[in-house]
Design brief:
The structure is a single chain. The protein has helices spanning 3-11, 15-31, 33-47, 54-100, 103-107, 111-153, 155-175, 180-210, 214-246, 252-268, 274-315, 376-383, 406-412, 427-431, 440-449, 453-457, 475-489, 505-519, 554-560, 563-584, and strands at residues 334-341, 353-360, 365-369, 391-396, 399-400, 413-416, 493-497, 523-527, 539-544, 547-552. The relative contact order is 0.08. By secondary structure, the protein is α/β, with parallel strands linked by helices. The chain has a six-stranded mixed sheet, with helices on both faces. Strands 2-1-4-5 form a four-stranded antiparallel sheet, covered by helices on one side. It starts with a helix and ends with a helix. It has 20 helices and ten strands. The protein has two domains: 3-183 and 235-315, ABC transporter type 1, transmembrane domain (ABC transporter transmembrane region fold), CATH 1.20.1560.10; 334-584, P-loop containing nucleotide triphosphate hydrolases (Rossmann fold, 3-Layer(aba) Sandwich), CATH 3.40.50. 64% of the residues lie in helices and 9% in strands. The protein is elongated, with a radius of gyration of 35 Å.
């Protein structure tokens, strides 16, 4: 999609008020000749070369100024009102769209790139809507109205007023380099890298400080900034040099020189009067300001079209396919048949999951364990349909998850992932995220069940404390808030991906007891690396390199003396070493 087409799509719902603002500016530009006419008459009456009272001419002059300036201000006001609607609509649309995009979309884009899209690209649209549309019309029509006025006074004075612009364009075209669109695209890529470096530095500052390398993150940001500065300078230097030389042609001294030279000729020949030359000089001196505004508006239009193209690419991006005829699952049993999934690699050996076949009976607890990188978290993401399998099928209650409406699926499958995210809202609202209308009593019950109630009450404002402001939670506390959220959602299927990985032993015991109570009557899939927490599961599935290598109960797998037994012995040995170290201290 081209930039202009994308821009029309972005601004489509707002074209009527923008057209009204444009009409106001057209009238304002046409009215800009009224003060010039009033000034011409006023000078004539003040010098005695024209009959009548100068006060009437002064009134016309002032009314013309007021009309032109007032309509211009009103047009800008309308555009700013429209701009607030455009920004709100785009940001809501982008947020809604990102909520429907598969996780693979975010894998391919850094946090800085997403921030660049939502903040800077929408900001580029703001500049166009709030300022550039009116400025472009004013920059084109107001000088045109001044040119018409000069031509009406004398055609030679009118042509003289064009000489500075023609000189500017000639000099700039001879000196400037080409490729404005490439310059804008390169600037955007540079800003993306700088934005990504900022986000990476902020997110990793804690780790860098721990290892005594706080300057490393800032060094990358400084390098990206320096590279961007050099790249930006190399890109814009030819245009800036050309503009610096060419702009002398539309400077006030050059314009005055041309107009006075031609004006002296016309006065000497008797074609014009000194007052007419003076007023056309004023008109000519005002024209370059509009021309420079028009040139600046061109840059803003290019940036806005580039931003609109990126925004529409996201809004039209492929989502997880929605079913044409959704089917509600009948039950909570889960069935995986021949499921394969890879992160874009062509080599089948690099597939994250290969030929996974698994049954989770309704009301049972299935634990999935395995070495790091064996595909456990990928399996959890597929079960929750954050991604779609490359091949094979995943069904819930006898219905393929791709045939279940997303709202029904989210109400059926509750998840607690190891990558915890709490929103910048109150703790209570974080817990009731899936059920916004839940009364406070039930929120507290869920928090108690997740063993986080006491810590919440210790916050400055208890459950009303806002995450990131007066609520600073540890990893274990945040994990228990997420567990409370899932408890409150009361989904019949639970997927717990490392649900107790960031908790201390005491909290882990309480959480495990809560999860055991919660699992009653539900289908539960637990992804865990603390094997003692899942020893009582109905079945344990062992993954290795994306394949199911063992399955059975804890006793059966221990007796089989395979990978599970090796993982169990290793975990127990680590626990014993930790305990001995603590006793030695």
């Amino acid at each position: 999609m081209t930039g202009s087409t994308a821009l029309r799509e972005v601004l489509g719902p707002h074209l009527r008020p923008l057209a009204i603002a444009a009409l106001m500016q057209v009238i304002a530009s046409a009215a800009s000749v009224v003060p010039l006419c009033g000034l011409l008459v006023l000078i004539g009456r003040l010098t005695g070369t024209a009959p009548g009272s100068p006060w009437n001419a002064l009134l016309v002059f002032l009314m013309g100024l007021a009309c032109s300036a007032g309509l211009n201000s009103l047009a800008l006001l309308v555009c700013h009102f429209v701009d607030t609607g455009v920004q709100a609509r785009l940001r809501r649309a982008l947020a809604d769209k990102m909520g429907r995009l598969p996780l693979s979309w975010f894998d391919e884009r850094s946090t800085g790139r997403v921030r660049q899209l939502v903040q800077n690209d929408v900001g580029s649209i703001h500049q166009l809507v709030a300022h550039t549309i009116v400025d472009t019309l004013a920059g084109a029509l107001t000088p045109a109205a001044g040119l018409v006025f000069c031509l009406c006074i004398d055609w030679r004075l009118g042509l003289a007023s064009l000489v500075p612009f023609a000189t500017y364009l000639l000099l700039y075209s001879l000196l400037a380099a080409r490729g404005n669109q490439e310059t804008v695209a390169a600037m955007h890529r540079g800003l993306e890298r700088v934005s990504s470096a900022i986000v990476e530095y902020v997110n990793g500052i804690g780790v860098l400080k721990i290892f005594g390398r706080p300057d490393e993150g800032s060094a990358r940001f400084a390098k990206e900034s320096a590279d961007f500065r050099e790249e930006f300078g190399a890109l814009v230097a030819p245009q800036m040099r050309a503009h610096a030389i060419a702009v002398t042609a539309i400077s006030a001294p050059f314009v005055a020189l041309v107009m006075l030279a031609v004006g002296a000729w016309t006065v000497h020949s008797g074609a014009t009067s000194p007052s007419e030359v003076l007023v056309t000089l004023v008109a000519a001196l005002l024209m370059p300001a509009g021309f420079q505004t028009l040139a600046a508006s061109g840059q803003a239009r290019s940036q806005a079209m580039d931003a609109a193209r990126r925004i529409t690419e996201i809004l039209h991006g492929p989502e997880l396919a929605a079913p044409d005829r959704p089917v509600r699952p009948d039950g909570t049993d889960i069935e995986l048949r021949g499921v394969c999934f890879g992160y874009g690699e062509d080599d089948s050996d690099a597939m994250a999951l290969q030929d996974i076949c698994l049954s989770v009976p309704a009301g049972s607890v299935t634990a999935v364990v395995g070495p790091s990188g064996s595909g456990k978290s990928t399996l959890a993401a597929l079960l929750a349909r954050f991604r779609d399998a490359d091949s094979g099928s995943i069904s819930i209650g006898g219905v393929d998850v791709r045939e279940i409406d997303e709202s029904v699926l989210r109400a059926t499958v509750g998840t607690v992932l190891q990558d915890l995210q709490l929103l910048g809202i109150s703790v209570a609202d974080n817990i009731r995220l899936g059920r916004p209308q839940t009364p406070m009593e039930r929120v507290v019950e869920a928090a108690r069940a997740a063993a986080i109630h006491d810590e919440i009450m210790a916050l400055p404002r208890g459950y009303d404390s806002v995450i990131g402001q007066d609520a600073r939670l540890s990893g274990g506390q945040a994990q228990r808030v997420c567990i409370a959220r899932s408890i409150l959602a009361d989904a019949p299927i639970l997927i717990l991906d490392e649900a107790t990985s960031a908790t201390d032993p005491e909290s882990e015991t309480r959480i495990q007891e809560a999860l055991d109570r919660l699992a009653t009557g539900r289908s539960v899939v637990v992804i865990a690396h603390r094997l003692h927490t899942i020893a009582g599961a109905d079945q344990i599935v062992v993954l290795d390199r994306g394949r199911v290598v063992e399955r059975g109960t804890h006793a059966e797998l221990m007796a089989a003396d395979g990978l599970y037994r090796s993982l169990w012995d290793s975990a127990n040995a680590s626990s014993e070493e930790t305990r001995e170290g603590a006793e030695a201290r």
